[in-house]
Amino acid sequence: MAKTLIMAAVNGARRTKADHPALPISVAEIAEDVAACAGAGAAMAHVHVRDGYGQHALDVELYERVIARIAECTGPDFFVQATTEAAGRYTPEAQIALIKTLCPAVVSIAVSELLPDPTDGPARTRFRELCEWMQAHAVWPQFILYRPEEVETLLRLHADGDIPFIEPFLLFVLGRYSERQVATPDDLPPFLEALGSVPTTWMTCAFGPQEHACAEAAIAAGGHVRVGFENNLWLPDGGVAESNAALVALAAEAARESGRGVMAPADAAALRAQLLC
User: d(Cα 13, Cα 15) in Å, to the nearest integer?
Assistant: First the structure.
């Protein structure tokens, strides 16, 4: 199996320093934290930016600043994934505007936010046109899926040509709708069953203290993993993780012990180039 791509999700849209004092919020904090994650084995980072009030923001200028600062700390092969998460604040129009104005190298898109009803003709056309624009402008999207049923929707969109990328890049979010929003490794098989044998590159993230167990399950099944404070603050033994880098290091150790190994940033950059087709 291919090496494991580890993505660090360092802050998210909602958590604050009241949740963990090491949660990075400012541009400088985010860059320093991502650099530490890169040193621990992350090949990409999923980053949210915050406005002056600490609120989740789809802000092009803030993203440009944080991406530039991270590049100074990590090098040109380390890509930052911007988010389009609505977080109850942003419309699909604002989400699309961020993508087209920022033109990030990598971006995450929740299919259920941009296309909540696949039978809505105008919304589906808008979604298809966005995907075509991203492919034409070398923006690599990761499609976020919260339920196995959403996998089936995405596969139909891909089969119908609404998603033109030859092999979609997927994120299975484990535990988002589980009791108390806590994931377990048992949440993964329904996603894989929905996926079937369709060629895709997939990754998991997992809510709660079983994040590492879920990562181990994903690695064993041939997937990639996203870990970090956005979804989880705890170590496998129940203690609070000191940093995002500590969670990344655990995932890297699991990938090496599995025999797959860990992607370097250059490996992840090569995967991006391959899947932009």
Answer: 6
Q: Where are the domains of the chain?
A: 6-275
SS (H, E, C) 9-26: ECCCCCCCCCCCCCCCCC
Q: What are the residue ranges in the chain where pLDDT is below 50?
A: none
Question: What number does CATH give the domain 6-275?
Answer: 3.20.20.70
Nearest CA among 210, 202, 216 for reference residue 232: 210
Q: How far apart are alpha carbons 2 and 236 in whole angstroms?
A: 25
22 vs 39: CA distance, rounded Å: 17
Q: Which of 228, 273, 260, 230 is nearest to 79 (CA)?
A: 273
Please state, in angstroms and rounded to a whole number, the distance separating the CA atoms of residues 81 and 259.
27
Residue 260 φ/ψ region, left for φ over 0, alpha for ψ in the -120 to 50 degree band, beta for the rest: alpha
Helices (H), the chain: 27-40, 60-74, 92-102, 111-114, 121-136, 148-159, 188-195, 211-220, 244-258, 265-275
CA atoms of 34 and 163, how far apart (whole Å): 30
